[in-house]
Amino acid sequence: MEYLWLILAGIAAFFVAWNNGSNNAANAIGTVVGAGALSLRRALIVAAVFDFLGAIIFGQFVSRTIMKGIVSIELISSYMTVVKGMIAALLATGIWVLISSWLRIPMSISEGIVGGVVGFGLAIGGSLIRWGTVAIIVTAWVVLPAFSALVALALYFVYERMFKSVKLLPYVVISSMFIMVFSTIFLLMVKTMKLKDILYVLTVSVGAGIVSVLFMAAYIYGYVRRKVSIDERRELIRLLLIVAAAAMAFSHGANDVANSAGPLSAVIAAASYGYIPRVVEISFTALAFAALGIAIGIVSWGHRVVETIGEKITTLTYSSAFTAQLAASLSVLILTRLGLPVSTTIAIVGSVAGVGLAKGIRAVNLKVLGRIFSAWFVAFPAVAAMAAMIYYLLTLI
Fold this sequence. Notes:
The protein is mainly α. The protein is about 80% helix and about 0% strand. Helix 7 (about 170-190) packs antiparallel against helix 8 (about 195-220) and helix 10 packs antiparallel against helix 11. The relative contact order is 0.23.
């Protein structure tokens, strides 16, 4: 019987991962497609590859918060209660996100799964819910769009000036490349504040940044500047935008794989031991399985929400799309490394709105933003209620 529950948990986790990819692909490539830097098909492939890599390499950080940080599952005496509760949370999240994708609304998967786990906690009485952790997570959701928008506003005014100089542009592109690679590696690798650890991570991050700069410099001076027919300024910004999209996809995989891998790891641990041990490592099998589901979701149905982020909120150019992409990626990476299951959806919507506001309030489609924020406001309690109901139904089996 335990194997049947494991299979059901695997199906539910894959369902969430697939919906995650299909809805949140827009977070990485919506701006790229909206600005016309890549075709939808190529952008989907880029997102799928880098999302998978981010999930496999760095996905374990946030998965621990999802698995044990919201409800103290180690204190639950019956392991089958945990199994059914996590399955209920996964199914409720998957259903909610599927509906959102159908309506072309970019949805926060993190909001859904946290709501689902809280719903399970409420269904068993509510005493085991770590409300302090929930409060911190919800606060992060509120702060993130404003923070991302402010970062985008600041970067917009800096980059818009630098992008206008054709002579300086190659150096701007190369330095931006270093910043993106360095910040991604550093923020995801640093584990402690010990000097030895920081020096090691710093060395690796700087090394990776230098290698990426050398490749970009070789491409610029070996290809771009030899092609007389190419608009150099436009091509360089396009390259930078594509790199920023790849970084965002990487960040998304690192953060959002937790939404499937965390609950699935809890189920695997419960079924394996017959109880919930106090220390549980995130299963690599669960990470790889969820990462694959995200990648398949991106390729198969990822086009659904791309238009909303890329075109409906504000009109994007190569430079403004890059600024939004970079601002969202940096915002997510910082909170991801703190172990918070923040939303790449919230970050990218905030940063796209931010670059729109930089051009004036009329450049932003407030009606679309209102529709998105309304859906987010309803998501947490709706998924919590749905998860509690599904858990009750599963207890009847």
